[in-house]
Structures are given as structure tokens and as C-alpha cells.
């Protein structure tokens, strides 16, 4: 699963084009979900970490999977769309997967998710996260030998 390479049949892609497109997807570039570009937004607050994704046209109960394993949140979605006209029929299929490393103190076991008007919002509470500076004492050691 992952980034879907867009290719126009009348255009030949060079090897460099393919690598550029793969790199842009793997390293956080635009993700495509059928013909729709997926936008991901991450927010780190004082009490929660939030990830939002545009996933229009899916049934969240059938085509959306969200899980947390260790310190990684994974979101997977699939969408299929059929358009029928008198002249022809079109079928579009897209899949999306994104893994995000969670910040320290994230409680994946208490995560919540909501899907409203094509927007998925996952909220993960944070515990024990402090941005305070802690001084660490240094002790003097002795050499032997």
C-alpha cells in the first residue's frame, strides 16, 4: 500500500521520473488516494497529539483501519468508485497507508478517532510529557590502576 504513481499513457516516464515520484511519496510528499491528493496534518499539544487526514468518499466502518503498535500510529484506507454513463463505465480504486511515530508519553491505548465530512481526526492523549528542563548532577569518579 502507499503512494499511487500517476501515469499518463501518452507519456513515457524516465527512470529519474519514477525515482522522483517514489521519493516524494516516501519522504512525506503528496499521497494520492485514487485521483485525490491526501493531506495529513499533525499537531502536538500539551495534553494530546492529533493527526488529521482528508479521506473523502470512504465508508469508515468498512474501509478504514487505524492501529497503534508500540509508538507507531498506522492509518489505512481504501476507496473504490464506479461511474457509469451511456457511453462507458469508469472504475477508480485507491488505497492509502501512512505510519506516524508517536511522541513520548503518547497513550495509544486511549486514542480516539472521528470521521466527519471526509476528514479523519485521531486524537491520542499524552501523559507525563513535560517541556521543563531537568538538571542532572554529575559525580566525580576515581580512576583505578
Automatic annotation (TrEMBL):
SUPFAM superfamilies (alphabetical): HSP20-like chaperones
Domain called SHSP: residue spans: 31-141
This one is known as SHSP domain-containing protein
Q: Which family does it belong to?
A: Belongs to the small heat shock protein (HSP20) family.
Query: InterPro entries attached here?
Result: A-crystallin/Hsp20_dom, HSP20-like_chaperone, Small_HSP
Q: Which PANTHER family match?
A: HEAT-SHOCK PROTEIN 20 FAMILY MEMBER
Amino acid at each position: 500500500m502507499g503512494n499511487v504513481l500517476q501515469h499518463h499513457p501518452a507519456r513515457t516516464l524516465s527512470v529519474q521520473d519514477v525515482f522522483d515520484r517514489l521519493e516524494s511519496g516516501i519522504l512525506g510528499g503528496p499521497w494520492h488516494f485514487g485521483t485525490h491528493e491526501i493531506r495529513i496534518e499533525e499537531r502536538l499539544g500539551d495534553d494530546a497529539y492529533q493527526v488529521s487526514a482528508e479521506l473523502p468518499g470512504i465508508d469508515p466502518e468498512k474501509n478504514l483501519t487505524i492501529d497503534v503498535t508500540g509508538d507507531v500510529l498506522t492509518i489505512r484506507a481504501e476507496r473504490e468508485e464506479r461511474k457509469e454513463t451511456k457511453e462507458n463505465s469508469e472504475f477508480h480504486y485507491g488505497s492509502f497507508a501512512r505510519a506516524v511515530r508517536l511522541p513520548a508519553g503518547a497513550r495509544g491505548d486511549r486514542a480516539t478517532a472521528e470521521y466527519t465530512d471526509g476528514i479523519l481526526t485521531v486524537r491520542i492523549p499524552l501523559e507525563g510529557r513535560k517541556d521543563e528542563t531537568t538538571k542532572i548532577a554529575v559525580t566525580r569518579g576515581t580512576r583505578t590502576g
